[in-house]
Amino acid sequence: MPMLILTTYQTFTPLFEIYMRNNLPSLGFGLGLRTEHYNTILETKPKVDWFEALSENYMVPGGLPLNFLDRIRADYPVVMHGVSLSIGSTEPFDQAYLKDLKKLADRIQPAWISDHLCWTGVHGQNIHDLLPLPYTEETAKHIAERVNTVQDYLGRQILLENVSSYASYVDSTMTEWEFISLICEQTDCLLLLDVNNIYVSSYNHNFDAKDFIDGVPQHRVQQIHLAGHQNNGDYIIDTHDAPVIDPVWDLYSYAISKLGEVSTMIERDDNMPELDVLVQELQIARHLSANVLKEAA
Amino acid sequence: MSHLANLQAEFQAYLMDDVKGAGFIKSVIDDKKVGAKKRLGIYFDAYRLRIIEALATAYPQLKALLGDVLFNKVAREYIDAYPSTYLNLRWYGSQMRGHLQETLAQHPIAAEMANFEWTLSLAFDAEDVPELSLQDLATIPPESWVDLSFEFQPAIKIIQTSWNTIAVWQALEAEETPPKPKQESIYQSWLIWRKNFNSQFRLITEMEVTALNMAVMGATFGEICASLEVEMDEEQAMVTAAQYLASWLENGLVCKVSLIKFAS
Description:
Oligomer: heterodimer
CATH architecture of chain A: Alpha-Beta Barrel
Strand order of the largest sheet of chain A: 4-5-6-7-8-9-10-13
Strand content of chain B: 5-15%
CATH architecture of the largest domain in chain B: Alpha-Beta Complex
Helix content of chain B: 40-55%
Number of helices of chain A: 9
Number of strands of chain A: 13
Strand content of chain A: 15-25%
Largest sheet of chain A: 8 strands, parallel, barrel
Shape of chain B: elongated
């Protein structure tokens, strides 16, 4: 369970109590930062504890998006979330990408940096998708070496997120959660647990979603993602274009009962509603988390 | 090649061509619920749909000009011709002008429209630099102006159009019926830059293009005046150069001035 300690995390406010987890602040309840909401955020200062910025959107020389991010960062804690690190690729890292990522982190001072446990392309090519990995010892060892390289370069632990997947490999020799555990053991990295992705993958690959939550190193979970998806009957696509569904909320409650308080946010990328709709949806997460933690106390 | 490297190479080859790469299907678990081919098909389709969406975001009025069906065809051909080498999807699409010059040569306005929209987008997130105003130059005595050299914001670009591309773009942007594509009697030059975080554009004369290009290359105000004297008398050249400079400052193009003193 996280320790309750005093901290001076927010320099310009008096000392106050916040939860720490893995020596990082527990940020509360956040939203993905999206272009459509920039002005509303600055004008109305909504009751959102923090925002998650998509790293690549701001890895540009300058201009309006970076300016918005700077101004929003002045009012809210921000974490950085990338899609192009390609931690599982057999290609060498793109050094320019790592440099730009670090440059953005130096500018934004995020609470932490995350990306996905996947690969996105080889032979100098990028598929712009989060492609699944075979769950083998060879792959885990390869990824662990790369995670260590990135953590050394950035000078901090990174968070890896479990992806939604639609295919699994005949060569896999272990479950996804065993694979994740193996990488964590070898790297001391942290986890971004996407509860919706667990639900999607459990549906697509016929496993019990609770086994996933039970199986990962729970103390390493620093952040939770929630999102909506598209159910096509025989499989689910992770679309982020709809509200979170009840079975995913149930799974979230189960996760909190096992993990304790964890920074939680909702990702919405398409069919974008007004900001206050998402703020309301975030209230559900607040209530569920509070109820579970109250019951556990 | 390691087992993992081999798997990734085969998966990627399948995503490029699901017929030639069909051998990869056997690497994926096939179950009663969803077959392996259908599972890989989700990735095959997503690869194209995601990039088509990104191209539509980068080229909104090109899409409006071509219509959904032709734009999708162009985008799919583009994906096949230019596999993405960019880690950031933002930069994918940079070859669209050349692609359209080859594949839609019968409609030259399409390539011009692509060039215009891409240049606008480059200006949008170009590097931030300070913006000088006319007042910033007030402290420099008039007799020193001939030795002034200028630095410009990185966002500025000049493009040429031979068709009524900008008029068509403006109508489409305003969701109005565009004029019929028409070739102009002479090509036009357009200055593109950024002001107050938004991309801007205006028509620019060939004489001003020459002056601006000289200034960007580091020419002094005096050298720009001298070059204009080929076209007009000394006093008129000075007035014209001053007008250009005033408009560059008003547009926010100039980020730094320096006094260049040459040893005599």
